[in-house]
Amino acid sequence: MTDHAECLLRLHDERFELEDYQSGVPRWCSGCGDNAILAAVQKLCRDERLHPEKTVFVSGIGCSSRFPHYMKTYGFHGIHGRALPIAEGVRMARPDLHVFVNTGDGDCCSIGAAHWVHAVRYNMNLTMLLHDNEIYGLTKKQASPTSPRGTRSNTTPRGTQLEALNPLTVTLGIQNVSFVAQAVDWIPEVLYQIVRAAFHHKGFSFVRILQRCPEWLPEHFEPYVKDPKRTLLLHHRDALQLSEAVARTYSNNREHDPSKLAAAREMATQLDPIPVGILYRNPAVPCYEDLRRSDKLRTADFIRAGLEAEFDKFTIWPCTQN
Amino acid sequence: MHAELNAQLAFHLTGARSAAALEPIDTGTLRPALFGAYRDLTALRYDFPLVFTEKSIVPLSHLVDEALKQVTDERVRVQALRREREIRARLAGGLGGQLSALWDIEPQLAADGELADCDAALPGRFLLQLWKSVHEAKARAFREDAERLIARLSGILAADYAHSDEGRTPEALAKSLAVRDDTFDTAALSRLLARALPERRLAPARRNRIRAALAVLKSQPGHDFVFESCAAALRAFLERRPALVDLAKAMAIARLEATGDYVEAVHDRVFSEFGETSVDAELVPAYLVRLNARDLQAAENTCLGELLASGLPAKILVEHHDILDWSAVANAPAFGAQARALAGLALGANEVFVLQSAASNLHRLREKVRKALEYSGAALISVFCGDYLSTAAAMESRAFPAFSYDPAAAQGERFSLENNPQPERDWPLHALSYEDAEHQRISEETAFTLLDFVACDARYAEYFARLPRGRADAEVPSIPMVDADNRLHRVIVGEAIAREARRCLDAWRALQARVAPKPVVEQEPVSPPAAPAPVPAAPEPEKAAPASDAAYIETPRCTTCEECVKINSRMFVYDANKQAYIADPKAGSYRELVEAAEACQVSIIHPGKALDPTEPGLAELVERAKPFL
Is the pLDDT score of A214 beyond 80? Predict the structure, then answer.
């Protein structure tokens, strides 16, 4: 199509507003970080002009996993820990859809841990948002794998005994990792930039979003919210570029090259200040669906021929000669 | 001495051979001195013969070298090289053949194909092979695309049929269920479906549109794309154009329908105005036209000009078999005039990919040739055909230099003189070593000029005269030549040829001028390492805007947490980005402002000064508001 004709066709491009992606009123507590993530994702959909019928949000169980209900797109609220395999199935069956995964620290790092490990290795092109509030929220305050040591909860009245799992180091340790980022829900501009970068990355984008739970852990992130110095913003020419306003407020920032895996792994071990930004990005890792894509057209005849060939393996041919 | 010089001058200016000492040259035995080493080409290893394999065109010597990389046995190596020499001699003798038939010894060669030496037919063959591979790749890509679209559209129509009443008759249902017995009562099923699921058909306009597009996509005839004249190519293109426009239109419609993006209100109008200008260059197949320079008459020349100016992807190969033209009008030589005129015409069109080369250089230029064939517009490929030595001499002497003009490249990188020997010089200089009368070794830098090239051609022998041996230098233009016994002679040249040499040099200099000079690379100033984002001098809390009296929210930092909008949804409102701002400070009390400021997770609400001094509990509220000012 020549430019002239393309322009004519684009006259009718649809534009969506934030409200077009909003479905219902979120039932999250007021002050819940999930609201911020919802706003950022809706902004992304609007700015990228994503067609609602071409976008899917897949979730497991938890407060985080209420997400698909509040997005006016296709969605799949799956069972506990199984958001990733469902999302991977969607990618293989419908490679034309934009797939997002919303999961929480319990859903992903506890019951869903096995799927998480393999999803990183498959490196399918989807965007995974880990809503990490470091507690089991929906079930009313039990310790999760990412709860810091000493967290008192209904299942750990004397405080947890183990150091928290670090989802960043785990993901960076898996073969084929291609995109790892950490965000915090109280810096909306940076959250949006990270989610957008994750969306544009071709491969499995792992974004861990530290999220406040005002109901069960109201004081937990206060020190970090109040003191900008305890957040370390990572910027780079190939990663986040900070606006002046953000750079002024969050003066603790550093250049971090997302192409260096060793540096990313080291950065991931840092807990205080919290590193926020794109830790690692490698666009060269192949995606599983591309490796498996066949160029052959799946016409009815093609499928029929394939089935016949399979059935013939079990056919007993009459013996024609001795 | 003086008389001799006069005699030489007389010959140079008038062509008269006054002295018996000025003998004509015998081009059969006398050749330019720099050719001394090239008497027997079969003894040398160079690009030819070429092997035309299925995938590519590769020199025989490359194949042999590749194979010999693994070989350590000296005997095998010697045998292989000898066989290569034999094959080369065989081809030089005019015989051809398949490589596998002629190479039946160790080591195994990686590819097989027909052998071709550098002769008059080679450029045509070379071009045709390359063109075929480019053309086939394009055709294959188009076919795959079309088949994909056909599958999708057929699928849509099949789904439509399945939802229709005709598709749900008992017979149709029986077929789709593929049962051979009466497990299913298809009559009952058909009735049930008709009642419960009334038919849902596509709008007739849409169905017809899809059917029409499908019909066009399925019925693509095969065409021939190789022509022997520009007129024929132009005619064929004009004949096939309406069908091409229909095809492009059908493909565009099919693409939109396949994804369900066709909107009649907009697209119907677009497609009703769909014409030749809307056709994508990718869809237009390239036409190959093979011309012989000798046959370029006036009418054909005009057609050529039209074809070049039209922007169509016509790839025109012009074969020159003789570049030592003679101008009837001037009654004098006009060497290379036709080639220059053609190149000028094509370069003048500015959007034409122009490639000029001698046949000897064709293999080196194969990437450029491929680029020319893949280029989306017209291409003119002008080749001097002949045996290796003459064509190489033509290039060496600047009589037929190689150049390329790629309109698709960036400005400044379009024109290239690569592959020409010593392109920065007027004439290429080579060291000529010989033994003088005192048996001393002398080495001179000798230029290979047009004069040397013309000296090889018997038709112009009368313009040359050999000086008697012993005359070491002459004030008249001359060239060194060697005879059959490798003895050096000095040969003077007539004015007419010398004039042509000057012309040739002018044309060469004009080509040199077209090459954009390389920009002078400034030493890059050492840039300071990328400084991190500005860090304020002292770690003090951010100095907010001067404490204003009005209440405000730092909206860009809002995390959409709902706290404030839950308190008062008329005072605190979300903007288009779902971030809060104070829509109406009078819509709520100062208490609400302060409570919101306290509840705000990121402390970005600034209550300012109370608007109503009579609000109850103001003192306490002002105290609470202090940290947020």
Answer: yes
